[in-house]
Amino acid sequence: MIEIPSDLHPDLVPLVFLLGRWEGAGVFDFPGSEKCNFGQSVSFTHDGRPFLEYVSHTWVLDDEGKKVRPLESETGFWRIGADRKVDVTTTRDEGVVEIWTGELAEGKPQIDLVTDAVARLPFAPEYSGGKRLYGYVNSDLMWVGEKATPAVPLRPYMSAHLKKVVDPREWVADLKDLPDDGIAFFK
Q: How far apart are CA 100 and CA 121, in angstroms?
């Protein structure tokens, strides 16, 4: 079930399905880089203003699913207009800043984005643009990213399946009227 926080800016209600912390795994595959499985942790938070703050960390996984090393990190801000247009700004650890634009699909929690502008620091890898598709499917967050460079045309390079992480402290706050000893609950 999706809950709308009472302090969420009204403009963000269409994006409420993104809120929270998500974790999962995916696949990374791009020419010139090592193909690998990766783990990911993503958070979408808000502070009452008309944007979501976004933080993503990914790391390479070995064959047993253990962390090997960091892969990519990015932070950003998500906004939505009355016309369902979504604008996102991101900064990646490799020295790339992106402005994404797209829209929230009509009648379903799916967002299609495409880069509108890309800026790179001199040491950043070649990159000319991308596309992303995010979808909320059966209470999970799934996404696929496409990437282009001057040498490689636009192609899928990352995708992941993420599950919402629930903090047990949230559950405890919702439990009212439990007996002090906890045992009477099971009688």
A: 18
Q: What is the pTM of this model?
A: 0.87
Asked if the structure places residue 54 within a domain, the reply is yes
Is residue 180 situated within a structural domain? Answer: no
Domain membership of residue 30 (yes or no) is yes
Q: pLDDT tens-digit profile of 121-157?
A: 999 999 999 999 999 999 999 999 999 999 999 999 9
Q: What is the residue range of 72's domain?
A: 10-175
Cα torsion through 115, 155, 40, 100, rounded to 10? 10
Tell me if 102 sits within 8 A of 123, measured CB to CB.
no
Task: List helix spans (H) across 120-186.
Answer: 168-174
Q: For residue 93, give the CATH number of its domain.
A: 2.40.128.20
Give the tens place of pLDDT for each residue, 81-126. Answer: 989 999 999 999 999 999 999 999 999 999 999 999 999 999 999 9
Q: Yes or no: say if 164 and 139 are a contact pair by the CB < 8 Å rule.
A: yes
14: Cβ contacts below 8 Å, ≥ 6 apart: 80, 84, 104
Residues near 59 by beta carbon (within 8 Å), at least 6 away in sequence: 38, 39, 40, 67, 68, 69, 70, 71
Count of domains for the chain: 1
What is the distance between the alpha carbons of residues 169 and 187, in angstroms, rounded to a whole number? 24
